[in-house]
Amino acid sequence: MSPLTPAQLDDGARDVTADVVQWRHHLHAHPELSNREEKTAAYVADHLRGLGLDEVITDVAGHGVVGVLRGGGAGPDGSGSKAGARTVLLRADMDALPVREVFDEPFASTVVDEDYPGGPFPVAHACGHDAHTAMLMGAASVLTDVRDELPGTVVFCFQPAEEGPPVDEEGGAQAMADSGVLDRFSPTAAFGMHVAPLPTGMIAYSRGNAYAASCVVKVTVIGRQVHGSMPWQGVDPMPPAADIVAAMGQLYRQVPAGERIAVSVGHVQDVGRFNVIGEHVTLWGTARALRASVTDDLQERIRRTATHVAQAYGCEAEVEFLQAVPALHNAPDWIDAVRPVLEDLVGEENVLEMPGGMGYDDMSVFIGAYGGVCVNLGAQDAVLDGEELRPAEGGPRRRAQPQPGLLRRRRRPRHRRRPPRPPRGGAPQRGRRASGLTRRLRRRRGSGAPYGGGSPRAARCTRAGRRSTRRSGRRRGRARTPPCPARQQRRAAPRARTG
């Protein structure tokens, strides 16, 4: 049996491209929120069953789908033995976001989830998970066609709730790991990718922490309810809540400059009415740190800040940290092993190393358990059989392209020097405006002659007028002191550019 070659995979990828586009269109038009991916999971499971995989497992940690493909090729040693064969986990996330569709496409989403907690919400695939799911479905198709030459086992993991389930529910990668389904196959590596606003054909990776550790922050500020006409008889929780939001935004100044953190509040929930001061206000947000060692310190600072600000207003504050996601760490050894493969795939010039970002991705759970790498795939202006991938509003194309005007060094403007005075009796320099007295004399006598032109009387009046307007205070008729040659030379020389 001949070994599997890259050419076979390339041919299979070309054959399935049109199907990937069609699948992505369908998924984009029918998005579902976290822990509500019922139809998406059924769509994926039907496809995997149609391929004839060895196992298709559904309802994993909610709506997760796991497909297993066992290859019949030789093991890593090339001896034909299956001993030591690897099991590789490939992961894609399926859930959408509670945001409005912004692109006018035939497959644009018009879905509104009426029953989601806090809703109703419009629903759209604004983070590219439709592309991730469609591409992994395509990978399953390609690898199934070369099953006999495949040297190992592939686990296709379609994960729900990557964006985070409702706070009173469980889900996502941690729930799939806790289910024990994946451990049955003992993966030796896990790989994932995320579309990014990079030029098509580029692959970017981060050495070390690629994504930050994150958690949901819930701060409940408790006051005392009262009618809006008599605030002095109660304790209004809204002012301390506003100050807590502002104070949390300044926490970055309390950590060393090299430690990257981000604290944000995205939702404020009040139980009051427009004319009633409610009993409590709840703040919902996230706290992120690129280094996991900073997370505990950051959470303690949030708790202390909220508590002290609330006490200053006579209120109480309860702080909770929910749905913790570890930092996604690409180990240097894994990067060194994967980079040559990426360079062979897209070319050395199209593989880019980037610093870690403050987003989060719970792919970190799988990489932490099994090892592996997560990379970013350039999808800016990507065309798949005539389809343009646009993962974010406005533009990945503008964010990703360098703007030459912003990269050029800006110079301070040079101040224009006044031209030197013309020699007495000579013509004025071009562009210099004559004095008011000279202009009046020219209009009166109809002469366009310069200084010293026209009648002798006009010339005498012109010279007298110039002398009378000087600020030196010399007596009229007194001989003028000749100017210093060095000073004249300095004045005539152009001013040096200072940058």
UniProtKB/TrEMBL annotation:
<feature type="compositionally biased region" description="Basic residues">
    <location>
        <begin position="407"/>
        <end position="421"/>
    </location>
</feature>
<feature type="compositionally biased region" description="Basic residues">
    <location>
        <begin position="488"/>
        <end position="499"/>
    </location>
</feature>
<dbReference type="InterPro" id="IPR017439">
    <property type="entry name" value="Amidohydrolase"/>
</dbReference>
<dbReference type="InterPro" id="IPR002933">
    <property type="entry name" value="Peptidase_M20"/>
</dbReference>
<dbReference type="GO" id="GO:0016787">
    <property type="term" value="F:hydrolase activity"/>
</dbReference>
<dbReference type="Pfam" id="PF01546">
    <property type="entry name" value="Peptidase_M20"/>
</dbReference>
<feature type="compositionally biased region" description="Low complexity">
    <location>
        <begin position="424"/>
        <end position="438"/>
    </location>
</feature>
<feature type="compositionally biased region" description="Basic residues">
    <location>
        <begin position="463"/>
        <end position="479"/>
    </location>
</feature>
<dbReference type="InterPro" id="IPR011650">
    <property type="entry name" value="Peptidase_M20_dimer"/>
</dbReference>
<feature type="region of interest" description="Disordered">
    <location>
        <begin position="388"/>
        <end position="499"/>
    </location>
</feature>
<feature type="domain" description="Peptidase M20 dimerisation">
    <location>
        <begin position="217"/>
        <end position="310"/>
    </location>
</feature>
<protein>
    <submittedName>
        <fullName>Peptidase M20 family protein</fullName>
    </submittedName>
</protein>
<dbReference type="InterPro" id="IPR036264">
    <property type="entry name" value="Bact_exopeptidase_dim_dom"/>
</dbReference>
<dbReference type="Pfam" id="PF07687">
    <property type="entry name" value="M20_dimer"/>
</dbReference>
